[in-house]
């Protein structure tokens, strides 16, 4: 937790549940990433946290943006981003959204299928397009599986076709899965992209850009490699596979930029046991799966907790949200322990929750309001 967030929680004590996020930390993270990968251009993945104070700060720093929808494109423009600094990175777009984004000046689009390519040819003529390929997501705690990307052979044919359709065949992208803890995931993917560059050059299509996607991890309960380790592995692999003919390098960090800038402040609603001598206590919070903690599904992302009793004796707990839905149980199998002194009314903090929380909050499931947000 940054000193600014700690001071805000202490002095203002905002009603829970809420996210308090330090926008200065966003700037620091952006600068750390640029230092780790000076040759890369940062396209912030807006979906991680689209709050205006974050977008405005990043615009001021010269960041570009990866938008997943027309609404995100418009949020970036409203925050002061130039349309040329926006990539429409979702491979699944309504044609009306493509048309409107193109009319607003967006000129870079992702695709992973022939049908999408044809939409782009019709509604974004001449635009720079990049094809997303499928790569392994091993090592990712929040994998993106097979939903996006296509096989490499198909990507080759589609990039040839892109040129024939009057589009600018610009580059190749991949995403190694979010909260990726293994630098090797990028190295393997870069090798595959380099082969595709060679194949396409032989077919007369000279690509100019590699988009390494996001995935750069945040520290939750477990240590993760430093961003410098990712930078070194990635730049080493780029040099190994591309030599002196380095293409433009794009990265699309989301979680890394905003994750550790934010803290969710919550209240303990109840501490109970299922039997008198059951060692496991159930701790119910006023935030759960539907209040924004969607990434606890499958106990995939394991947030670290702070309580007023840290350091005192603790015991095993199951941690759950406040709604009357049994899937609103956050952690049952991940060996969480919390202080024995914890009781109803205590405030607890969930650390490094600046990414993928506010926008995952449901509208008013069970009457619980969406998460309140404070940017400091
Ligand atoms: C979600 C997403 C990102 C951001 O991923 P992080 O793991 O948060 O860095 C980047 N690019 C694309 C295409 C995405 O879908």
From TrEMBL:
<dbReference type="InterPro" id="IPR022657">
    <property type="entry name" value="De-COase2_CS"/>
</dbReference>
<dbReference type="InterPro" id="IPR022653">
    <property type="entry name" value="De-COase2_pyr-phos_BS"/>
</dbReference>
<protein>
    <recommendedName>
        <fullName>ornithine decarboxylase</fullName>
        <ecNumber>4.1.1.17</ecNumber>
    </recommendedName>
</protein>
<keyword id="KW-0456">Lyase</keyword>
<keyword id="KW-0663">Pyridoxal phosphate</keyword>
<dbReference type="InterPro" id="IPR029066">
    <property type="entry name" value="PLP-binding_barrel"/>
</dbReference>
<comment type="similarity">
    <text>Belongs to the Orn/Lys/Arg decarboxylase class-II family.</text>
</comment>
<dbReference type="InterPro" id="IPR009006">
    <property type="entry name" value="Ala_racemase/Decarboxylase_C"/>
</dbReference>
<comment type="pathway">
    <text>Amine and polyamine biosynthesis; putrescine biosynthesis via L-ornithine pathway; putrescine from L-ornithine: step 1/1.</text>
</comment>
<dbReference type="Pfam" id="PF02784">
    <property type="entry name" value="Orn_Arg_deC_N"/>
</dbReference>
<dbReference type="InterPro" id="IPR000183">
    <property type="entry name" value="Orn/DAP/Arg_de-COase"/>
</dbReference>
<feature type="domain" description="Orn/DAP/Arg decarboxylase 2 N-terminal">
    <location>
        <begin position="24"/>
        <end position="259"/>
    </location>
</feature>
<dbReference type="InterPro" id="IPR022644">
    <property type="entry name" value="De-COase2_N"/>
</dbReference>
<dbReference type="InterPro" id="IPR002433">
    <property type="entry name" value="Orn_de-COase"/>
</dbReference>
């Amino acid at each position: 937790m940054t000193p600014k967030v700690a001071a805000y929680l202490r002095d203002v004590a905002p009603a829970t549940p809420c996210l308090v996020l330090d926008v200065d930390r966003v700037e620091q993270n952006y600068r750390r990433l640029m230092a780790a990968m000076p040759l890369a251009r940062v396209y912030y993945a807006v979906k991680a946290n689209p709050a205006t104070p974050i977008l405005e700060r990043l615009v001021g720093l010269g960041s570009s943006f990866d938008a997943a929808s027309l609404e995100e494109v418009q949020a970036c423009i409203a925050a002061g981003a130039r349309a040329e600094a926006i990539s429409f990175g979702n491979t699944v777009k309504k044609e009306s959204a493509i048309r409107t984004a193109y009319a607003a000046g967006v000129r870079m689009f992702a695709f992973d299928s022939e049908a999408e390519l044809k939409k782009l040819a019709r509604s974004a003529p001449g635009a720079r397009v990049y094809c997303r390929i499928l790569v392994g997501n091993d090592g990712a705690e929040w994998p993106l599986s097979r939903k996006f990307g296509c096989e490499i052979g198909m990507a080759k044919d589609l990039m040839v076709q892109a040129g024939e359709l009057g589009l600018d065949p610009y580059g190749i992208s991949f995403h190694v899965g979010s909260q990726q803890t293994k630098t090797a995931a990028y190295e393997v993917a870069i090798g595959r992209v380099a082969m595709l560059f060679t194949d396409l050059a032989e077919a007369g299509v000279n690509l100019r850009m590699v988009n390494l996607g996001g995935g750069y991890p945040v520290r939750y309960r477990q240590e993760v490699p430093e961003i410098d380790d990712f930078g070194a592995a990635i730049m080493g692999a780029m040099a190994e596979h591309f030599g002196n003919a380095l293409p433009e390098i794009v990265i699309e960090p989301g979680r890394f930029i905003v994750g550790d800038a934010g803290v969710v402040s919550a209240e303990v609603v109840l501490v109970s046991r299922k039997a008198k001598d059951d060692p496991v206590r159930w701790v119910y919070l006023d935030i759960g799966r539907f209040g924004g903690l969607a990434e606890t599904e499958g106990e995939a992302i394991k947030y670290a907790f702070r309580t007023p009793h840290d350091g005192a004796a603790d015991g095993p707990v199951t941690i759950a949200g406040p709604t009357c839905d049994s899937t609103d149980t956050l952690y049952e199998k991940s060996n969480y322990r919390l202080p024995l002194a914890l009781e109803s009314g205590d405030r607890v903090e969930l650390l490094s929750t600046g990414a993928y929380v506010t926008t995952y909050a449901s509208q008013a499931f069970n009457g619980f309001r969406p998460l309140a947000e404070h940017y400091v």
